[in-house]
């Protein structure tokens, strides 16, 4: 008797595509337009965004091609054979720290924004704790179920975002996009760096490749999964510039949420669309945080096989909560993102590339047929 298609633990190329998109779409886009407006003139950041997108797609494809070499044995086993177990342990443990801090960052960001737009009188500590408890509940379940949860959430996020963008056209001024091509290359490079940070997240393929029923399709699936947020981010940025202007955009902390405030719905059916929009966007942040938490556990289970999945869930939850509360103010929190991004680039991109090169030189057995 054939098993239920979604009842097994394997995932398809479509699952990976949506997982990549869900992992990338998170808190970063809510502040990115404001960061770019402080760096470039008018709407010139679209060039930086497309360049950063091409770079992210190229790196994602490379990392995924490398990951297909250990689609059965796993990253830790492959690295152990290539660079010895102690070095492999450090590489995987570094990935664990990256995803752990990624999860804490998302939890803190959601708490800050939710307090500003939804729960003005609720202490941020309570918001963060409540959010993390929902994350703990989700991560305690099936890993394949978490990935397929993206298929349920991402269409809702995309539809609501498109609705906000379309309704914003009534207050969109194309004159705010001009003049074009007036930004120097150094500023464009700086904007490209900020955009690249917002496109990170595809490194989860280093772990989830082992769940695919056809790993050979992973590179194409990941490329599509990264391409979709690149297009979406560019459209959102241009819409924000056209609605607010570059000068105003520089002063707005969360322009994407503020964009929903500018939307006019005939009949005044919704009076506070920004609250509804942000509530929906929490779904995107939820899937990002859940997968970061899951990859944190995935890394630990590679290194320490005896403890059960749920044991790691409950051991890590207070650590993540305390890490999310470490920044004392927004200034400290704003420094947290770049540090996590730089560290992530090293441990999730540079390390796998170096390990793969050594593996090729030493003739380590690959899972690629």
N- and C-termini, Cα separation? 29 Å
Q: If classified by CATH, what would the architecture be?
A: Up-down Bundle
Residue windows where pLDDT falls under 50 for at least 5 positions: none
Work out the count of structural domains.
Answer: 1
As a percent range, the share of helical residues equals over 70%
**Rg:** 21 Å
Strand content: under 5%
Structural class per helix/strand content?
mainly alpha
What is the H-and-E element order? HHHHHHHHHHHHHHH
Provide the CATH superfamily. Amino acid/polyamine transporter I
Strand count? 0
CATH top level assignment: Mainly Alpha
* Sheet of most strands: none
Shape category: globular
Mean pLDDT: 86
Q: Could you please say which CATH topology applies here?
A: Amino acid/polyamine transporter I
Helices, by number, come to 15
């Amino acid at each position: 008797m054939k098993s239920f298609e979604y009842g097994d633990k394997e995932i398809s190329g479509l699952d990976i595509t949506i997982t990549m998109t869900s992992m990338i779409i998170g808190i970063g886009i809510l502040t990115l337009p404001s960061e770019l407006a402080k760096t470039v003139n008018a709407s010139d950041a679209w060039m930086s965004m497309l360049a950063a997108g091409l770079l992210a797609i190229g790196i994602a494809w490379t990392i995924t091609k490398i990951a297909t070499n250990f689609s059965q044995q796993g990253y830790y086993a492959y690295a152990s054979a290539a660079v010895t177990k102690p070095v492999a342990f450090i590489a995987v443990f570094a990935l664990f720290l990256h995803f752990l801090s990624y999860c804490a960052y998302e939890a803190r960001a959601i708490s800050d924004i939710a307090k500003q737009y939804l729960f003005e009188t609720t202490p941020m500590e309570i918001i963060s704790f409540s959010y993390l408890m929902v994350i703990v509940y989700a991560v305690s379940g099936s890993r394949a179920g978490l990935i397929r949860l993206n298929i349920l959430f991402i269409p809702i996020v995309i539809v609501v975002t498109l609705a906000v963008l379309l309704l914003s056209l009534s207050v969109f001024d194309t004159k705010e996009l001009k003049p074009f091509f007036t930004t120097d290359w150094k500023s464009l490079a700086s904007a490209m760096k900020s955009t690249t940070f917002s496109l990170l997240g595809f490194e989860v393929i280093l772990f989830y490749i082992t769940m695919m029923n056809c790993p050979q399709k992973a590179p194409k699936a990941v490329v599509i999964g990264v391409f979709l947020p690149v297009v979406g981010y560019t459209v959102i940025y241009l819409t924000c510039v056209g609605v607010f202007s570059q000068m105003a955009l520089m002063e707005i902390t969360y322009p994407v949420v503020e964009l929903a405030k500018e939307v006019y719905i005939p009949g005044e059916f919704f009076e506070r669309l920004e609250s509804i929009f942000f509530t929906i966007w929490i779904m995107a942040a939820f899937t990002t945080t859940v997968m970061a938490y899951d990859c944190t556990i995935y890394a630990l289970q590679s290194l320490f096989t005896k403890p059960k999945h749920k044991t790691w869930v409950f051991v890590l939850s207070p650590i993540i909560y305390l890490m999310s509360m470490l920044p004392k103010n927004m200034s400290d929190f704003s420094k947290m993102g770049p540090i996590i991004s730089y560290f992530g680039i090293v441990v999730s991109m540079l390390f796998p590339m170096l390990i793969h090169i050594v593996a090729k030189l030493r003739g380590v057995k690959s899972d690629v047929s």
